[in-house]
Amino acid sequence: MPLQFYNTLTRKKEKFSPINQGEVRVYTCGPTVYDYAHIGNLRAYVFADILERTLKYAGYEVKRVMNITDIGHLSSDADSGEDKMTKGLLREGKELTLPNMRELAEFYAEKFKDDLRALNVEIPKNIYYASDYVKEDVELVKKLEEKGYTYKTGDGIYFDTSKMPDYGILWGAARNREESKSRIAENSEKKNPEDFALWKFNSELGFKSPWGRGFPGWHIECSAMGMKFLGEQFDIHTGGIDLIPTHHTNEIAQSECATDKKPFVKFWLHSEFVDTGSEKMSKSKGNFLKLESLANKNISPLTYRFWLLMANYHTKMNFVWEALEGAETALKRLYGLYLGLGSEIGNIHGEYRNKFKEYLEDDLDTPRALALLWDVAKDENMSAADKKATILDFDKVLGLGFENLKEEEIPEKIKKLAEEREDARKTKNFKKSDDLRKEVNSLGYEIEDSTLGYKINKI
Ligand code: AMP
Ligand code: ZN
What we know:
- This protein is an alpha/beta fold and 459 residues long.
- It folds into 3 domains: 4-271, Rossmann fold; 291-404, Isoleucyl-tRNA Synthetase, Domain 1; 412-458, no CATH class.
- Helices cover 44% and strands 16% of the residues.
- The protein has helices at residues 39-57, 84-91, 98-118, 134-146, 173-183, 218-230, 244-258, 291-295, 301-309, 321-339, 350-361, 366-378, 384-398, 412-426, 430-442; strands at 4-7, 12-15, 23-28, 61-68, 126-129, 150-152, 156-159, 196-201, 214-216, 234-240, 265-271, 274-275, 317-318, 445-450, 453-458.
- A 5-stranded parallel β-sheet has the order 5-4-3-10-11, sandwiched between helices. The protein has a 4-stranded antiparallel β-sheet with strand order 6-7-8-9.
- Strand 14 (445-450) and strand 15 (453-458) form a beta hairpin.
- Helix 9 (301-309) packs across helix 10 (321-339).
- It is elongated.
- The two termini are 42 Å apart.
- The model has no long low-confidence stretch (mean pLDDT 92).
- Adenosine monophosphate is lined by residues 29, 31-32, 40-41, 43-44, 69, 239-240, 242-243, 273-274, 281, 283.
């Protein structure tokens, strides 16, 4: 089966092939760094990581670029409300200056990278701060101005969506135009409700431009950086589903109008949300779940990754603590099975590998890939060494950290108690056997019985 992804642009699963043979160029919308990332945000990056790893597993070179939004993102996607970075500075009692804004951004960008490392997400080599590329934003806006796509209002330079007949193709605007309009706050000076800011004036704080001091629009940043580092046309663009109707729709509009309708991106891939129900999960509302909040409840970052992979990236996930606890137990069980395989590494099982590749290449079907991982771990017809090789191979994509697992030394005392318990069990002294099992548990270990004998695990 060929490599295929669901493309938001065409609303169907399509066979994927890159524009340049052998090399895939991917742009990922990065975080707005005015606060810590919440666990919902992190899903978007675990998803992009699985995509990159799958492409590499399929034999492609991957050039991935990610931006850090450190300027220009307002609290509403529709160019109104407070600037998020300003909000961050005010919250932390810092003076509103560009250097302070950058300092704040760098602090939270580093925290974000720490989260990615903990989640075993390969951090793209090409991560760029939007504030370093304002010149490129200005150039792009100038191009649009020359081509007649812009107009000026009291608060900025706007893109005139009525000049682009197929505006909103990603959003399905033909169908949803009314819905789209109703979502966007009215700004009386805008010619059309969907028109969006390319440059916002700010006489006190901001960057110089031909139109006056201010900030680039959030959307223009991603077009300018995508084009600078990946070219006017590239293969894949990723982000969460909330970016479809405005941010990505507007990226397409301004990029394609600036390049005389060259299709900007071939495949648009979007990951669904993590819904926390009663637990708040919006950075702008404060009080949200971070990776650290999970660690405080003994849920490791890799368990969170494992839990995310249990669902397809198109499926909305409901965060409930019990589900995460279940995932923690399941992952530990997998680790235990792996650690029981000894130190020898054999050969990757060809049939399993083919299936694994097939599942992932079918629009990143991680739930099926995980089910296959369990099949391998439990396959009684495979040698331990071959299982180990196959699991390590799968983990190149899954990234669950098998490679770094180390067998924990079981203390002699525990081993002795377990031996005594085994003897008691064999001689049908069940009372003694049960007492010894409890004693082992009280010391932080458990005895797991199987057809092959028993195994001691740390609880
Ligand atoms: P932001 O830092 O707000 O620019 O968002 C970073 C990424 O997180 C974007 O790709 C969003 O689409 C995504 N995102 C935001 N909220 C959630 C959520 N609750 N669940 C999953 N992804 C989200
Ligand atoms: Zn973006």
